[in-house]
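subagent[fold] <- orchestrator: predict structure for attached chain, return tokens only, no commentary.
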Amino acid sequence: MILITNTLIDGLKERIANAVSTNQSTGIIIPSNNYSDLICSLFEYMDTKPDAIWVYLTITKPFESIFDDYSSLINNQNIIFIDCISHAAGISKEKSNCIYIESPSQLESILLEIMNSYKNTDDKKNKYLIIDSLSSLVIYNDAPLVTEFFTHLINRTRLSDIATISLTIEEEMDDNIRKILYLKSNKIIKLKESFI
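subagent[fold] -> orchestrator:
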């Protein structure tokens, strides 16, 4: 079982690295049972790029939960987390490398915080945004609003030379999310259950 998991994670890291190095916007569609493997792969990939600027937007899990699960992999000081869940769930622990949004329904605030996170960074450094997950935004917002938000976000990140990795949980996808993800992503990685 450990060998299979390690093989999955290594394969995911390779696919993520290949997609991100050649594409401005990468969409990843993943079954919920492979979510933890993918997140582990992403943090391992981030660890190989310590000079890059990373912003990790979490709509799926509170920052504290992510940190508890992956603290050994979150070594990179250039990761800024934007947590849209903690305040809405009544969790009030504050961390220095995390920006807290009151609610995932505050799409304008999310967009502003993402772009402000890159404001004072070195233009020569690679910049990345991870959205975890686009499909979770539909739980808190109407699908047309999420589509509009994602369109604005991708346009702004492209103009600012920020590579975007948008995660989508397959079971949570609706037609609107599927269409906008395919329309705005240069590359789509679709993972199958327990396979790469």
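orchestrator: received. Logging for downstream: The beta strands are 25-30, 53-58, 79-83, 98-100, 127-132, 162-169, 187-190. Residues 2-22 form the longest helix (21 residues).
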